[in-house]
Write a structure and sequence with these properties.
Layout: E1 10-12, E2 20-24, H1 25-38, H2 40-53, H3 57-64, H4 66-79, H5 81-94, H6 96-109, H7 111-124, H8 126-143, H9 150-170, E3 174-178, E4 196-200, H10 201-207, H11 213-227
Amino acid sequence: MENPQPLENFYLNPKSKDGLDSRCKNCKREYEDEYRRTHRDIIKVRAKEQRQKNPGYPKEWKEKNPEKFKANQKKSKKKNALKIKKKSAEYYQENKEHYSENGKVWRENNPEKEKARGKRYRKENKGVTNAKTAKRRAQKLNATPKWISEEQILEIKDIYKKSAQKTKETGIKHTVDHILPLQGENVCGLHVPWNLRVITNKENSAKNNNVLEEDLESHKKFVMDLINKKPQQE
């Protein structure tokens, strides 16, 4: 009885009488997938032996079949997306400091690319960006004491104006930093003039949500001077 399927549905096999494989392409793929699932250990041993016999073969095959290699990589990533994501997250947590340092160096060496990346991220993730902005605004409102005077509120606005002016004059991005972070790990500061200063974005990124020891001591002295109603010495 003749197979009702067209010839193009079969792989070529020069060893067979009609020159075609006995299984159709779909059946053969199903068979090979099943074989790979049930004979993983055997396949691994064979692959290892093959690599030892021909150490340069994988690289040669990749160079000769770039499109097939990309397709295989894409298929593998899609199939193992959750596993890859979990493994990447675990690796990141184990090497967080290394990633942080590398990222810092890259940003310093590629300011324009980093600026473009940030702009692109904000555009593609408006919801996340707006949420962060709203959270930051709420933190400032909660950290702004009710007893602050109108004069001190104007002083805060002037500090932000100085930051923008500094950026314009130098061409280097400046920002307003909270000396004691609004959400520090061990201590939280207030959104008040004496807890604000203008620094570069680079300095602010390096500081993150940490408190420098010298800043803490200086801030303590300033606050004590205010309490004692003594003018702060320049």
